[in-house]
Specification:
Number of helices of chain B: 2
Shape of chain A: globular
Number of strands of chain B: 5
CATH superfamily of chain A: Thiamin diphosphate (ThDP)-binding fold, Pyr/PP domains
Bound molecules: thiamine diphosphate, iron/sulfur cluster
Largest sheet of chain A: 8 strands, mixed
Distance between the termini of chain A: 40 Å
Number of domains of chain A: 1
CATH topology of chain A: Rossmann fold
CATH class of chain A: Alpha Beta
CATH class of chain B: Alpha Beta
Radius of gyration of chain B: 17 Å
CATH architecture of chain A: 3-Layer(aba) Sandwich
Order of helices and strands of chain A: HEHEEHEHHEHEHEHHEEHH
Strand content of chain A: 15-25%
Largest sheet of chain B: 2 strands, antiparallel
Largest interface: A-B, 39 and 40 residues
Oligomer: heterodimer
Helix content of chain A: 25-40%
Chain lengths: 301, 89
Amino acid sequence: MAKLTIPQEELMSSGHIGCLGCGATLAMRYLLKALGKRTMVTIPAGCIAIMSGIYPRSFLKVPLLDVAFETTAASASGIRAALDAKGIKDVYVVGFGGDGGTADIGIQALSGTAERGDNIIYVMYDNEAYMNTGIQRSSATPFGAWTTTTPVGTTGDFKKRPKKNMVEIMVAHDIPYAATASVSYPEDFVKKVQKAKDMDGTKFFHVFSPCPTGWRFSPEMTIQMGVLAYQTTVFPMYEVENGVYRVTKKPAKRKPVTEYLKLQGRFKHLDDETIEIIQKNVDKNWEMLLAKAEFTKKYAE
Amino acid sequence: MAKSVEDLPYIPLMSESSAVNKTGVWRVIRPIVNQEECNQCYTCWKFCPDVAIQIDEEGNILIDYDHCKGCGICEAVCPKNCIEMVKEE
Ligand SMILES: Cc1ncc(C[n+]2csc(CCOP(=O)(O)OP(=O)(O)O)c2C)c(N)n1
Ligand code: SF4
């Protein structure tokens, strides 16, 4: 019998009603494995809010609070304040929102929480659009993608703006820890959560969560999609600890972005010229990340 | 479950596990594990988004068909190719 590479305890239940192959639920499953039972989770509207099924069911074995779309981080701050008032110190408080609920609608509350330095963990599960309401563009939708509000058609009206960089925004708040992670690399994700969970202040995780329904790929390919995003460095793995960047996993050889793009229906309209723009942008971001890691290294404690 | 409105708490509480949702009825293809070939690396267990793969006392992989939706991730990630997806009858 082989040794398990992530904790065995399951704090997420089966019977949740996410789509076949949903990456977002894997993000939740791994997060709770890393944090353990003494955890409270607050979630906004989004796919994650419907997972439990009809009332009074819950898909988590830890306390779960459903809040209004824009209030995830504020509610997490509130839970922490209540726990502090009661003198309870050994509970992790998590805000867990989608990219729409985080990078767009909840960003003001999140900025407030981070600026106050409230002691919570915030996870943005990133499926790169407003999936629960039918695949509308968010600020985390990547350049070139089809969504129902960037409908391509005959006019080529795919998303023309690049993906908002949430880790950078959080780093600018001078928080102790911000990192990317992917559902395709659970060991890396669990390790990062375990490293950061007891730091004082706001901890931020940007978790790549492929969505077969919205990205238009077959559900068995979810893990492969995360692997390709990593190997092409479309979604690099890194952490930023007190402003110091560190690339936590580096692909031996970077694959061309087409290998990632060509498997998804949301990119099928792209011509070679547009793919070239995407490749250049991915190259630039990767080189800038390496440069940041090199430059900030000297500030590591 | 509450029997009438009076039985409901003032603050809505989620008191029942989602495991009562038998999502196995969604399935159109079913994973079958070849236990002879399986080397118990648990890669399938690790990547199951439905928490529908369990490990028994002997260390064998058990598929929970009440909840498995048949996404096929286990077949795709198995390094030994010992999981096969077959059409439901
Ligand atoms: C204030 C408010 N506006 C709009 C909605 C409708 N709504 C519910 S879920 C959702 C999409 C959420 O998208 P995202 O946060 O990216 O999570 P995902 O569904 O992709 O998991 C929207 C727009 C709402 N519930 N509340
Ligand atoms: S739409 Fe995407 S994120 Fe939402 S439940 Fe389905 S697979 Fe998961």
